[in-house]
Design goal:
Layout lengths: L8 H13 L2 H33 L7 H4 L25
Helix pairs in contact: 1-2
Length: about 90
């Protein structure tokens, strides 16, 4: 986790803009920045906690790509049809 630089206010603002614009065009234009500044740091955090979580439950899934939420929402079964999230989370 030595590469971890944190998540900046600018990144959080970009996530809000992504949700506000709620368009594929805006997302595609900013996809690499969102990935580098939000998704990768979240996966680094998840990886850092992985070994500790395995001590609690050895059957727990600690693969960072499976633990971190996605930016794109699944809108098939919801009344809220926004395509993109303004936040992300880690689930153990």
């Amino acid at each position: 986790m030595s590469d971890f630089k944190g998540i900046t206010r600018d990144t959080l603002f970009l996530m809000q803009l992504n949700r506000f614009n709620d368009s594929k065009a805006f997302y595609e234009e900013n996809k690499e920045k969102i990935k580098a500044d939000m998704t990768v740091p979240m996966r680094q955090i998840a990886a850092a906690f992985g070994d500790m979580m395995l001590k609690i439950d050895p059957f727990m899934n600690t693969v960072p790509t499976k633990m971190v939420s996605r930016v794109r929402r699944d809108t098939r079964y919801t009344h809220d049809k926004h395509l993109y999230r303004e936040n992300m989370w880690i689930m153990f």
